[in-house]
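input
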Amino acid sequence: MSLGDEPGYGDSSRGEDGGYGGSGQTRTRLPGGGGGDVYGGARRGRSSSRSLITVVGVVVLLIAAIAFANRGGDDSSSSGGGGSDNAGTSPTAASGERPVGSKDSGIPSGFAHSPVGAESAATNYGVALGSTGMFDAAQRHAIVDAVYAPDVAATRQPELDTAYSSEEFLTNIGLNKDGSAPAGLTFISRIIPVGTKVTSSTADSATVELWYTSLFGLSGNGSTNPVSESWYTTTYKMAWTDGDWKVTDFTQKDGPVPVGRDQQASTADDMTKAVEEFGGFTYAR
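output
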């Protein structure tokens, strides 16, 4: 996922941007709605509903983007990727570590106590926090409890409940009051990880940057909020808590954004079929 300014985690560090879904201090901008025939032709511009989304906020991404620390010292060994030993240029690659074998509320858990384990945790948690499950109260509670350190989760839950139950917010992204999609439409909210890197780490903490693209909107004939993509880099503060990595803080910035190709948008039927047939990632890194 990345939706607006909800009361942040640590108000002293908030900037002018806010966001949705996380540990507390940034924004996730979600695509606004457009009128008329929402599919076909080139990519559409974003409407004023996006501005409202930026104001409402999904607390998981709730402060201004922070400057990222340069790698140094032992961080060169924490990229977790294969290939080059140069931490600044090595690609995100399979780490060689076995995937975790357990899940908490459907989210992978039991990550390795290492920088690579922190990367895996941050990536999988980002996927969960950007999912449609965050718009369902029961699923949202389970996700937040699984992703955040206990003390942070206790603070985030009521704030997220307020943000995600806002009738004005839900109306402006085209959803019903209970967060469900209108009849005949399919709600899409999905994060697709592109790469990760560790910018700092100690034995029990790590800062992980996750670069990803996201899909958000309503697919179907008559949708006023067509599915569109956005690009972000999110920085997660991770802490080793009770035998696993957990999120303690969260910031986000736009991009890097690739040059878009002049491709014709898919039809509503094709988009809905794709989302139904192509499952999202359940384990990364």
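quick obs: Confidence is low (pLDDT under 50) at residues 1-90.
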